[in-house]
């Protein structure tokens, strides 16, 4: 197998038991993946402990200079000073270094959480959008559809704004632009929903999004009673 997935490595580093047997076997043998997990685990533990200043980077001198001048500690001697002057200055400086270490730890936690969140939730790319217009029998009905790609798969997000009857249910469809074929994406429960588009559906052909009113226990096909419909166009 190839190296383990970065998402899995991040979770393993956080101590989550997510690795498959094959991934664990790979980890046991692969120095590259082991080093990656170890490095991520160090970041996680620095973020979690927030006290281990030994593991934290020492800020460069200009950071200290900026903080000390901001807080009025400008008396830091530029030339060798008598021993007592150094002693006097050392206490506030130590406090400040500890405060700074805390700030660096906080940044490490935020950066760690941000990185982890981004690893775990791939950002969707919006591919196309449709404004869904109401059919004459459904005066005032309207909606929207967004086709997005997330993690290599496509899904349609729909919203429906219509006064819908208590009986029956609403079903979301993709319809070929020439009306020759249709694919059911699923039942819309409420006013919004997200529907996975099967990977084998050719979206250059199925460009219409349709929401229909269906009868409970009725024919599994489209009832012919469309509430709204619209054409997906590139976003
Ligand atoms: Zn590997």
Automatic annotation (TrEMBL):
Q: What keywords would UniProt list here?
A: Membrane, Transmembrane, Transmembrane helix
Which residues span the membrane?
A: 96-114
Q: Where is the Anti-sigma K factor RskA C-terminal domain?
A: 100-225
The record's Gene Ontology cellular component field reads: plasma membrane
- UniProt region (Disordered), positions on chain: 213-235
Short name of one Pfam family for this protein? RskA_C
Give the source's domain of life in one word. Answer: Bacteria
Q: What is the name listed in the Swiss-Prot or TrEMBL entry for this protein?
A: Anti-sigma K factor RskA
């Amino acid at each position: 197998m190839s190296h383990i997935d970065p998402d899995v490595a991040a979770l393993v580093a956080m101590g989550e038991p997510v690795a498959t047997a094959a991934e664990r076997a790979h980890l046991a043998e692969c120095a590259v993946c082991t080093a990656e997990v170890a490095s991520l685990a160090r970041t996680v533990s620095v973020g979690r402990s927030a006290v281990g200043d030994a593991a934290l980077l020492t800020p460069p001198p200009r950071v200290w200079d900026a903080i000390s001048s901001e807080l009025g500690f400008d008396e830091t001697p530029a030339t060798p000073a008598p021993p007592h002057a150094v002693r006097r200055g050392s206490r506030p400086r130590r406090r400040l270094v500890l405060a700074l270490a805390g700030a660096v730890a906080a940044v490490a936690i935020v950066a760690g959480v941000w990185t982890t969140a981004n690893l775990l939730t791939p950002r969707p790319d919006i591919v196309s959008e449709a404004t869904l217009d109401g059919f004459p029998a459904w005066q005032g009905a309207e909606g929207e559809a967004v086709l997005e790609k997330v993690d290599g798969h496509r899904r349609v997000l729909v919203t429906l704004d219509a006064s819908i009857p208590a009986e029956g249910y609403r079903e979301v469809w993709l319809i070929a632009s020439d009306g020759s074929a249709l694919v059911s994406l699923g039942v819309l429960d409420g006013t919004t929903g997200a529907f996975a588009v099967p990977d084998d559906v050719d979206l250059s052909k199925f460009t219409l999004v349709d929401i229909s009113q269906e009868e409970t226990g009725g024919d599994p096909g489209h009832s012919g009673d469309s509430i709204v419909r619209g054409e997906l166009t590139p976003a």
